[in-house]
Design goal:
162 residues, alpha+beta, Aminopeptidase, 7 strands, globular, binds coenzyme A
Length: 162
């Protein structure tokens, strides 16, 4: 698709809950998006335990997905991935904004996520949404040459004076 139709398609993008029948497509996007992808089983577990699992559709094409857990005042954004040909059109920002608003609506005070410091694209996105680094998890990620640290990022959602 050339860039203008793509852009138009994106204005019609819709967010909806992920279902069990979406998992094979989600897992295919995951394998295309990451060197060390989650398995289908992990996505099924996310659905089973009631995590907030969303997909973003552009027409009949699933363009991406996002997964978040909420509890004890904290939201954890666990995965956001956009199909290669639909990147750089604002879809991840839209998914992130949706998840953040959802976390706020659930009364969560803070949202956390982990990112590989080498993932500059995602790091730019999160910084532009106001996430700030609050820690490092040493050797958190599998990497081609062993392990890679994770940067732990936080966004304050609701100020709690107590
Ligand atoms: C990271 C990812 C989700 C971004 O998706 P996207 O839909 O292309 O992102 P958006 O179009 O919403 O861009 C939002 C912001 O991200 C940053 N960004 C996106 N693409 C970028 C690029 N190629 N270079 C630098 N920054 C970039 C920018 O800050 C951008 O905002 P701007 O367009 O206003 O400048 C996508 O590249 C992806 O799925 N990557 C593989 C999976 C992954 O790494 N997920 C994150 C794991 S922590």
């Amino acid at each position: 698709m050339s860039s203008e139709p793509r852009r138009e398609a994106v204005t019609a993008a819709t967010l909806r809950p992920m279902h069990e029948f979406d998992v094979p497509v989600v897992a295919a996007l995951e394998r295309a998006g990451y060197q060390f992808p989650w398995s289908e089983g992990i996505f099924r577990d996310c659905l089973r335990v009631g995590y907030i699992c969303r997909v973003i559709d552009v027409g009949a094409t699933m363009a991406g997905y996002g997964i978040m857990s909420v509890g004890a005042g904290e939201a954890h954004i666990l995965n956001v991935c956009i199909r290669g040909e639909f990147r750089r059109l604002g879809l991840a920002r839209r998914m992130m904004t949706h998840l953040i608003e959802r976390a706020r609506g659930c009364g969560m005070r803070e949202a956390f996520l982990e990112v590989r410091p080498s993932n500059t694209v995602a790091s730019h996105l999160y910084a532009s949404l106001g996430f700030q680094q609050v820690g490092t998890r040493r050797g958190y990620y599998q990497a081609a040459n062993g392990r890679e640290d994770a940067a732990v990022l936080r966004l304050i959602l609701n100020f709690d004076p107590n």
